[in-house]
Automatic annotation (TrEMBL):
A zinc finger (C3H1-type) spans 224-246, 253-281. Residues 1-12 have a biased composition (Basic residues). Residues 19-37, 558-576, 828-841, 863-873 have a biased composition (Low complexity). One of its GO terms (cellular component) is protein folding chaperone complex. SMART domains: TPR, ZnF_C3H1. It comes from Tricholomella constricta. Keywords: Metal-binding, TPR repeat, Zinc, Zinc-finger. This is C3H1-type domain-containing protein. PANTHER family: RNA POLYMERASE II-ASSOCIATED PROTEIN 3. Residues 842-862 have a biased composition (Polar residues).
Length: 1338
């Protein structure tokens, strides 16, 4: 027998031989049975095709059955179950437009309009002519009040099918609503996007479930099975190797994987050893059929190791040419040689010089939201950041020889107007640069723009993929992982994935999911790298990934050694106070006596803490921050985002309560955590299920979670908004008397609850509160959005609020036993923490430092007789005057959008908000009522007629009422006209809606009384009133007024018979209207004037006058400490405000905190309310602000108090991370509008600086460090008298011919006090000394 015969025999007798494949192999080698083998091969291909066809039919039948199941549930009214079934069908059988359309219909039924819009849009992507999906999207958009977009959908439906009467009716009513309200609710919608996808667009390709058998798709250990790809594998699904398609081979018509290197003729293993097939007879048509193409590819790829070849590389070369491929080794830590030559350093990336920087490209604007600040702070701690908010800035920075990397943080780069920037960015990458696409890019990019953005510019076939939250694992084989061993091995992320990625380019992946889809990818592009991070929430884990993708050093340059860091950490830990002072005094937890909601007994040495259990990681969105901040103000907080962290914290001795903030706890993989959680509650702990739990939990998971794990029969109930009232008989209500008696909430209720377990419940008068649907009675009174059940010795709590309402914050605190903690034990004689006023930590013989000297009395105490007299006077006076905020619809975001107005009101008087008719009537009967601000359109509803009647009586008897806020935004036109005519007897009617510039009507009574305070003219977008008398108008369109619009032409405003601001005397009082829809700052004074509040603060009780605090003094002197008396009456202290970033500040400036605490008492981490309380203390010597959050609208009231403190003689210093995080464009308004100093943002640079000898602070503190290098943000607009330090290159004040324009450190007088600024972002030792000097402590 010949050797050839022996080989053939050996193959046919081998286990797993496939006859067709063996015959085809023989035929390809020119064997004698070539003809018969081809026939056998054709038969095998035919048989496989028939099997796939049959399998596909079976899958289609299963899909139809599951769709019908969902339809049956929908018809039965079980919409949540229908949603689950439709979503499961999409996950199982792929993206089908009919499934997405049905899913949208179900979401509409439960009023989840955002999800309904997403589902309908997905349906239209795969079938742009699907009328039902477009109609349902229109309904969803109308439900969200995106009226312009809804109109576009209804019109598109009628263009395709004019017979659709339901669409015609919806179009008519929506256009009527739009005529009244305008398009100001269409935020986030460009008109060009409204009808995307257009009905004539090309449908996206539907994903199909592979009709192969499970054997052909078997993945195994991921390594290709040689038997399967050659002779055939008899082990099938039990094989430990992979039978599935992969990137290094081409799938043939028999299901075998053919080697790409073999097709190019460069496989180094040969037929016998290669794990892939070397037979191309069964391949479908492709590039391998063209000898010319194969030869060209072979020539291009000759330098490449055949083990690195993959399909994407081949496709990229065919589509874009060889310039997109780099054949150097990816495992490197620096730039390529070309990039090193360009920047002229030759340094690896981890050794950046001070001149290098990362470019933050934000062409849509500046990313400054709270949840983004940690990312930007982490970047700035590694390397200086320069921002480009325009094409001109971007092009300038991209040409810099010191550019170290680019972070594209929004989606503006996909717009055509930025094409030149994009072209330059691609060049930078191919020359060796690192670019990362992330930040808000994934939140705002449109799917049609994403694919061409990557394909046409970068030569990469990435497309928009799925959007969901999951746990992702690090791909340990990726170069980013190898070069950055400290990257998290896994973390939870909500992200927009990209599809069409090569597995080798994936940095993080979801286990068991599509291997070609990922939320974090990095590829070679020329000699550089392009990265993508789809995280929409800027999670903490993504910060490390971003830094790694940009090749930034893994440790801060300021870190000298690991041992030094360890020592520093230990120092910070030991110096941190165990308990912070807050509104209710120091947080104390019982150690033996258990009370309602208390935790199990704790060790007396353990610091109590609240555990935030976020196994989906869903705790970072801005609207959740107030609740989290309120908890942190009351207690230490620890967060667990993984099962391992949760299990550790659940057995910690200091655990005082658990707040489960998302639905990750219901996943089966966390069953051990649930077991521990239940055990904790049964032992006496308090567990709260709330936050985002009700938003993301699946109904069937919720059933199982409560019934099987906790033994309670709670089940998901209805989902709607209404007003709920407190159950006064509930134990929690009795223990927490400050809980709101009622408030409006949009919530997922629970049913099967007992009445005594309900904390809040609807009443017979509760109505559905919706902007779209009629206010029908709630479906049942047997459900509740807030319940509590006894579990063993502890408690299980549930809050279904999906919007984290402000009132729910108090409920959260109560359930965690933080709202009204048990009274502390009687203080010991030596205790200092029991005093409500901070005490000094100084030695007995140390003098008490303060900011006051000279003019201040030597004693800060109030004489006993005077105190008694004042107390007696106050006790005999009526209640304090207040302004009522009448908010019967309690619109979302009112407090945020009108923060400036509310802050100004609170500076004048106390404000009380009436959310129900009962509370409104009670306040209207109060003797202390000073005026009413109607903030929304709830007053026009028929159920509030009795409140409106009493409001009219209040005005006629001499009161002042102003209708404004969200009233003009949400009021219906017909209701508005009837409101003015029937209730007030006025001819006022709703008028036009536009923006223009308005001028004061000098003849109006209000203007005459406030001549120098009201703005003479300003621009406002408003709903005007017609039918007014000329004497009613406070503002009228200016003589040269023109329509101000980004869409319409600037036509002149000729009709001056309408006004956006009117006021008329009715009876003995005044009734006013403000139509401003954007809460312009100039409108604030108009409101104050209408309420008679312009002038000094009026929050003193009727008949009581308070003493003005003693003014504080000049620049703090170095020897101030020795001037004050010691003793029990003087307790000097200062406050440090870090706005939730206390741990960060304590970590990087622990030495400064230690220095301050060695001088006096330091309060750090207090809530805004507590800070405001303590600002009035005569012992407060100053306030250090370490974060830019002080400039946020949410903190406007606090900022006003800081300014007042400084003007009265105090010292406020902006330092710490303020300069690193403040928005450049926000610096001018912050300093100029709030503080009255002409400072603006200056250079961000690292320079040598010296003291300005002409400044008083330098004269009184000659030991201030000088010279030294400081990296920081300078302020411009300063004078020689306010600059404490100057750059060495700047002119000195002694040179009269030159002018000082900016400085990194400044101190300016603000009336009787001082405002300081330290722009240092490196937070070095000199920073601490400057802080001490500014507070007179050096």
């Amino acid at each position: 027998m010949s050797n050839r015969a022996r080989k053939g025999k050996s193959k046919t007798n081998r286990p797993g031989v496939n006859g067709a494949q063996a015959a085809s192999s023989s035929s390809s080698n020119g064997g004698p049975a070539a003809s018969s083998s081809r026939e056998t091969m054709a038969e095998a291909i035919h048989q496989r095709a028939e099997k796939r066809k049959a399998h596909a039919a079976e899958i289609a039948a299963q899909l139809e059955a599951q769709k019908n199941t969902g339809n049956d549930l929908f018809k039965a009214g079980d919409f949540f179950e229908a949603i689950e079934v439709y979503q499961d069908a999409i996950d199982t059988f792929g993206e089908k437009p009919v499934l997405f359309s049905n899913l949208a219909a179900a979401y509409l039924k439960v009023e989840d309009y955002e999800q309904a819009e997403d589902a309908a849009t997905s349906a239209l992507m795969y079938d742009p002519r699907m009328i039902k999906a477009r109609y349902r999207r229109g309904l969803a958009r109308r439900g969200m009040h995106n009226l312009g977009a809804a109109i576009a959908d209804f019109r598109s439906v009628l263009e395709q099918d004019p017979s659709r009467t339901e669409a015609r009716e919806q179009l008519r009513t929506t256009e009527d609503l739009y005529a009244v309200l305008g398009g100001h609710h269409d935020d986030g919608y460009e008109s060009s996007d409204n009808d995307w996808p257009h009905c004539d667009d090309t449908p996206a390709e539907e994903s199909e479930v592979d009709s192969d058998s499970s054997d052909c798709l078997h993945i195994g250990n991921g390594f290709p099975c040689r038997f399967y790809n050659h002779e055939g594998c008899l082990r099938k699904d039990y094989c430990r190797f992979s039978h599935a398609p992969d990137e290094k081979s081409i799938r043939d018509m028999l299901g075998k994987n053919v080697c790409i290197a073999f097709l190019l003729g460069i496989c180094k293993f040969g037929t016998a050893k290669c794990v892939y097939s070397h037979n191309k007879d069964c391949l479908p048509p492709g590039w391998w059929d063209s000898e010319t193409t194969v030869a060209e590819l072979k020539a291009i790829l000759a330098p490449v190791d055949s083990g690195r070849l993959d399909k994407d590389m081949i496709d990229d070369i065919i589509a874009c040419g060889a310039d997109v491929i780099d054949f150097e080794d990816d495992a490197h830590t620096g730039y390529s040689q070309a990039m090193d030559e360009r920047i002229g350093t030759g340094l690896p990336i981890a050794e950046f010089s001070g001149e290098h920087f990362v470019l933050l490209m934000v062409l849509d604007g500046d990313p400054v939201e709270d949840y983004k600040k940690p990312t930007l702070t982490a970047l700035s701690n590694k390397i200086p950041i320069k921002k480009a908010v325009s094409s001109e800035e971007a092009l300038t920075h991209l040409d810099s020889p010191h550019l170290a990397g680019v972070f594209v943080a929004d989606a503006a780069l996909t717009e055509r107007k930025h094409s030149q920037v994009l072209s330059k960015l691609v060049q930078f990458t191919k020359a060796g640069g690192s670019v990362v696409i992330g930040g808000s890019f994934s939140s705002w990019v449109t799917p049609p723009a994403m694919a061409p953005f990557f394909a046409n510019n970068w030569g990469i076939k990435w497309k928009s993929g799925s959007y969901h939250r999951a746990m992702f694992s690090l791909n340990a084989s990726h170069d980013v992982a190898k070069s950055n061993p400290d990257l998290p091995s896994s973390y939870s992320m909500k992200a927009l994935h990209i599809i069409g990625v090569a597995p080798g380019t994936v940095v993080y992946r979801e286990q068991g999911a599509n291997p070609t889809e990922s939320p974090a990818v990095r590829v070679r592009c020329g000699k550089g790298h392009l990265g993508y991070i789809g995280d929409v929430n800027w999670e903490e884990g993504s910060i490390a990934v971003l830094i790694a993708m940009l090749h930034l050093p893994r440790s801060s340059p300021a870190t000298t050694s690991s041992s030094a860091k360890a020592k520093s950490d230990a120092k910070v830990t030991s110096s941190a106070p165990a308990v912070e002072v807050n509104e209710a005094g120091p947080s104390r937890l019982p150690t033996s006596t258990q009370k309602q909601g208390s935790a199990p007994s704790q060790s007396s040495s353990a610091q109590p803490f609240i555990l935030l259990l976020a196994l989906d990681g869903d705790i970072v969105e801005g609207y959740k921050l107030p609740t989290i901040a309120a908890i942190k103000a009351k207690s230490s907080v620890k967060t667990a985002c993984s099962a391992k962290e949760a299990l550790t914290h659940l057995v910690a001795p200091g655990l005082a309560g658990v707040f489960v903030v998302d639905a990750g706890i219901t996943n089966r993989q966390h069953s051990e955590v649930v077991t521990k959680l239940v055990a904790y509650a049964k032992a006496g702990g308090s567990v709260l299920i709330g936050g985002a739990f009700s938003t993301f939990v699946r109904p069937k998971d919720m059933d199982t979670f409560f019934e099987k794990s906790w033994g309670v029969s709670w089940k998901p109930g209805s989902y709607h908004r209404t007003t709920f009232v407190l159950n006064p008989g509930h134990e929690l209500a009795k223990a927490n008397p400050s809980l709101p008696t009622s408030y409006s909430m949009k919530a997922l209720h629970v049913k099967n609850v007992t009445p005594d377990s309900m904390i809040y419940h609807p009443t017979a008068g509760s109505r559905l509160e919706s902007l779209v649907f009629a206010p029908k009675p709630v479906p049942t009174l047997a459900e509740s959005p807030a319940v509590q059940a006894r579990i063993g010795e502890g408690y299980l709590n549930y809050i279904g609020d999906v919007n984290w309402e402000i009132e729910s914050t108090k409920l959260v605190l109560a359930m965690l036993r933080l709202l009204h903690p048990p009274a502390p034990s009687p203080p010991q004689a030596a205790s200092s923490t029991s005093s409500p006023v901070p005490t000094s930590s100084k030695k007995p013989n140390q003098a008490s430092p303060t900011a006051a000297s000279g003019s201040m009395s030597t004693s800060n105490s109030v004489p006993a007789d005077a105190a008694k007299s004042k107390q007696a006077t106050a006790s005999s006076t009526p209640s304090k005057r207040f302004v009522m905020l009448l908010s019967l619809e309690n619109e979302d975001f009112f407090a945020t959008t009108h923060a400036h107005c509310l802050s100004a009101l609170r500076d004048k008087l106390e404000t009380k908000q009436a959310l129900t008719a009962a509370s409104a009537l009670s306040m209207l009967n109060s003797a202390g009522l000073a005026g009413v601000f109607v903030t929304d359109a709830g007053i026009v509803q028929s159920e509030n007629a009795h409140v409106l009647s009493r409001l009219v009586e209040y005005v006629k008897s001499g009161g002042s009422v102003v209708v404004g806020g969200f009233f003009s935004t949400f009021v219906n036109g017909l209701q508005m006209n009837a409101f003015f005519k029937n209730s007030w007897g006025l001819t006022w009617k709703g008028g036009s809606y536009h923006r223009t510039t308005f001028s004061l009507n000098a003849s109006h009574e209000l203007v005459a009384k406030n001549p120098a305070v009201l703005a003479a003219s300003y621009s406002m977008k408003a709903l005007h009133l017609g039918g007014i008398s000329p004497t009613d108008a406070v503002y009228l369109p200016s003589d040269n007024a023109r329509l101000q619009s980004r869409v319409f032409n600037a036509v002149p405003i000729t009709d001056h018979s309408e006004s956006p601001v009117v006021q008329r005397r009715i009876g003995d009082g005044h009734f006013g209207y403000i139509g401003d829809v954007n809460a312009e700052k100039d409108t604030t004074n108009v409101l104050l004037a209408m309420l008679g509040l312009l002038g000094p603060p009026q929050d003193v009780p009727i008949g009581v006058s308070e003493q003005v605090p003693a003014p504080r003094v000049d620049v703090p002197e170095q020897n101030t400490i020795t001037k004050l008396p010691t003793g029990p009456t003087s307790r000097p202290f200062m406050m440090v405000l870090s706005f939730g970033n206390e741990k960060f500040f304590a970590g990087v400036q622990g030495d400064l905190l230690d220095l301050l605490r060695s001088k006096l008492e330091v309060l750090h981490g207090l809530s805004n309310e507590r800070v405001i309380e303590l600002i009035g203390s005569p012992d407060l010597i100053g306030i250090l602000v370490t974060e830019a959050a002080v400039a946020d609208d949410a903190n406007a009231y606090l900022l006003g108090k800081l300014v007042a403190f400084a003007k009265a003689g105090g010292t406020v210093v902006m330092g710490g991370a303020f300069g690193a995080n403040i928005r450049f464009d926000k610096m001018g308004p912050f300093f100029q509008d709030s503080w009255g100093v002409p400072w603006r943002g200056g250079d961000y640079t690292s320079v040598e600086i010296i003291v300005n000898g002409a400044h008083q602070l330098v004269k009184k503190n000659p030991t201030l460090p000088s010279p030294f290098y400081m990296k920081g943000l300078h302020v411009s607009g300063i004078t020689p008298e306010t600059a404490v330090y100057l750059a060495v290159r700047d002119p000195q004040p002694s040179t009269p011919a030159k002018k000082v324009t900016q400085a990194p450190v400044a101190l300016a007088p603000v009336e009787k006090g001082y405002l300081g600024y330290i722009g240092d972002v490196g937070l070095q030792e000199e920073h601490s000394k400057i802080v001490l000097a500014m507070f007179g402590l050096l």
